[in-house]
Amino acid sequence: MFVCVFTFTFPAVSQTGCVNQNTAYSPGEELNYKVIYNWGMIWLESGQSSFKVSSTQIKNRTIYVFNGTGSTYTSYDWFYKVQDVFESYVDSATLRPLIFSASMREGSKKEKHNYTFNFQTQEARTNIVRGNKPVKEDTVKTTACTIDVLTAIYYARNIDYSNCKKNDTIGMSLLLDGKVHPIYIRYLGKAPYDGGLLGKFNCIKFSPLLVEGSIFKGGEGMTVWVTNDKNKIPVYIETPIVVGSIKVKLISYKGLRNPEESKFK
Predict the structure, then answer these.
(1) Is pLDDT above 50 for 1?
(2) CA distances from 256 to 44, 73, 95, 264 (A)
(3) What are the tens digits of pLDDT across the range 90-113?
(4) What pLDDT is recorded for position 23?
(5) Is 242 within 8 Å of 80 (Cβ atoms)?
(6) What pLDDT shows up at residue 211?
(7) pLDDT at 28 > cutoff 90
(8) What is the chain's alpha carbon radius of gyration, rounded to the nearest angstrom?
(9) Are 30 and 52 in contact (CB under 8 A)?
(10) Burial state string for 76-114 with b = 16 or more CB within 10 A and e = fewer than 16
(11) Alpha-carbon distance values, 241 to 38, 79, 95, 247 (Å)
């Protein structure tokens, strides 16, 4: 629910090539969010989400480990229970994913996804279980830049937006639901964001196109605010969903790689 999924194609792409250098995050970073649900006149703080970065060593290579979780508060499980856990292992030298796993419960839907990437052969092995159905295994062709949905969040934080003009789009390649999709995010310019107790931030805004599914509507309704500095941390997200809309607000963070140059004094 809380990982931004976007897969529609768009004809004009302003940037090409892979992002392969990380300047935005480092092991020890942790970002925590609250999720506010709106239905008509009703506003409810209904869930929480957290994203963490750690690292490990595999065959003398430093590997980033991304962990993303999202869940509704237990008091709202009767309405629509969400319990999602995502994990990605990513080569720190190339920012290409090696292994991705996801365990998702959203309402009555339960799924588990496991992907193993091989960038030498440009393919990925997928293993998907939906509810009580048999395991579905496949091998799909990838590109030199294909990433998973959790890695996409960290990938987007290393994009250079300095030369973007409003409505420019930035292309990416995403392995989602066992298929590779050409995707993009639309740059919307700069704007301030008031984070309350966290302070006021100068931000970059962009809009991913959402996949229509059990929660999200398809289309361009989502808007993301990230800090306009080297960290590019997401501070605020708003998006319509199938019933109502949600707002996702940063409530705490630690372990940032760079100084907070986007904060208003």
Answers:
(1) no
(2) 29, 27, 18, 17
(3) 999 999 999 999 999 988 889 999
(4) 97
(5) no
(6) 52
(7) yes
(8) 18
(9) yes
(10) beeebebbbebbbbbbeebbbbbbbbbbbbbeeeebbbb
(11) 10, 15, 31, 10
Distance of alpha carbon 140 from alpha carbon 155, whole angstroms: 21
What is the band of 6 on the pLDDT scale with cuts at 50, 70, 90? Answer: very low
Burial of 197 (0-12, 13-18, 19+ CB in 10 A): exposed
Instruction: Tell me the one-letter amino acid at 32.
Output: N
Indicate the pairing of strand 82-91 with strand 97-106.
antiparallel
Q: Are 209 and 8 in contact (CB under 8 A)?
A: yes
User: 3, 130 in Cβ contact below 8 A?
Assistant: no
Token pair in block for residue 170:
């930035």
- The contacts of residue 196 (CB under 8 Å, 6+ apart) are none
Owner of token pair 């990230």: 226
Q: Where are the alpha helices (DSSP H) in the chain?
A: 77-80, 149-156
Place of tokens 């496991």: 114
**Which residues, in sequence order, are CB contacts of 96 under 8 Å at separation 6+?**
18, 20, 90, 117, 119, 145, 147
pLDDT at position 8 is: 32
For residue 148, give every residue at least 6 positions away whose Cβ sits within 8 Å of its Cβ, in sequence order, or none.
Answer: 88, 97, 100, 115, 174, 175, 176
Q: What is the mean pLDDT of residues 203-226?
A: 71
- Which parts of the chain are beta strand (E)? 30-39, 42-58, 61-72, 82-91, 97-106, 109-118, 123-130, 136-141, 169-176, 179-194, 200-208, 223-227, 234-240, 245-254
